Amino acid sequence: MRLPRHYLLPGAVLLVVTVTVTVTGCSSSSRPAATSGESAGVVRVVASTNVWGAIAAQVGGDHVAVTSFISDPSQDPHSYEANTQNQLALKKAGLVIENGGGYDDFMDTMVKAAENANAPVLNAVAISGKTAPAGGDLNEHVWYDLPTVTKVANQIAVTLSSLDKSNANQFTANASAFAASLTPITDQIASIRQKHPDAPVVITEPVPGYLLDAAGLTNKTPKEFSKAIEEGTDMAPAVLQETLKLFSSKQVRALVYNEQTTGVATEAVKKAATNAQIPVVPVTETMPDGKTYTIWMQGQVGALAAALDTSQQ
């Protein structure tokens, strides 16, 4: 059973030196962590997820050493449990990047415990300026919103420039190059909007919500379904049946499926989509190894475009 996000950091992690790590493979670095013996100009960057870590690595280049806590695309990131290695990394960090919006609340707790007042903390949701809609919940998965990603990259460049003034021009140039690399994705999203206006789709979770909105697609998923999946709570049988009927009656053109959060209900809708010959588009919350943010996102947007093209035939 998935734990609520605000319970992911056991109190013992902050008080006891010996901790059992229950999730393996969830820490990664873009390069070896900086040590006290490394030359000046290398900023230790700690990110809650490898999405923000990868963007920091692209902006910082050789002048940063990045450690990302949540990085395994085969694991449900909501069940991640922080550990003492994470705490040590934060204590030594020169810059901290968190997602915010309730996605990684453990970061705030650990940052306070690290007592590293010199490290600025960038909060992606705060930078985005996004707030919860009236009567609704904030979609905290802001890395699926390209304008937000560009804002965060620019803020990373600004912050790194304040920490390492000698390389400020390089950070600014890298952020500009990163923003330019997103243009083909933006163009592809615009093409989806033009070719498939208001195309109905189902999602298992709100993870790709900003992408679907930008593409002009209509989310037909019952709110009770996606909310139950995201929060790991029980779902009324009637809600599941209502969702399955969207496929059997061919009311939707694609299923956008979060591969990192699966269960009986998600497998049921995936099977229903397959039986109805409706394309399934897999998405993830963290990046696969060996990919940049641009390549990863371009692949997902391309898969969505191909699915809609196929379902139109």
Q: Strand percentage, roughly?
A: 5-15%
Determine the N-to-C terminus distance: 40 Å
Broad structural category: alpha/beta
Computed Rg: 20 Å
Q: What is the string of SSEs from the N terminus onward?
A: HEEHEHEHEHHHHEHEHHEHEH
Helix content: 40-55%
Average pLDDT, to the nearest integer? 87
Strand order of the largest sheet: 1-3-2-4-5
Largest sheet: 5 strands, mixed
Shape: globular
Describe this structure in words.
With 313 residues, the protein is of the alpha/beta class. Helix 2 crosses helix 6 and helix 2 packs across helix 7.
Keywords:
alpha/beta, five-stranded mixed β-sheet, 9 strands, disordered N terminus, 313 residues, four-stranded parallel β-sheet, globular
Topology of helices and strands:
Elements: H1 11-15, E1 28-29, E2 43-49, H2 50-60, E3 64-70, H3 84-92, E4 95-98, H4 106-114, E5 121-123, H5 124-128, H6 146-163, H7 168-181, H8 183-195, E6 200-203, H9 209-214, E7 218-219, H10 223-231, H11 237-248, E8 254-258, H12 264-275, E9 280-283, H13 293-312
Parallel strand pairs: 2-3, 2-4, 4-5, 6-7, 6-8, 8-9
Antiparallel strand pairs: 1-3
Outline of this structure?
With about 325 residues, this protein is an alpha/beta fold. Helices cover about 45% and strands about 10% of the residues.
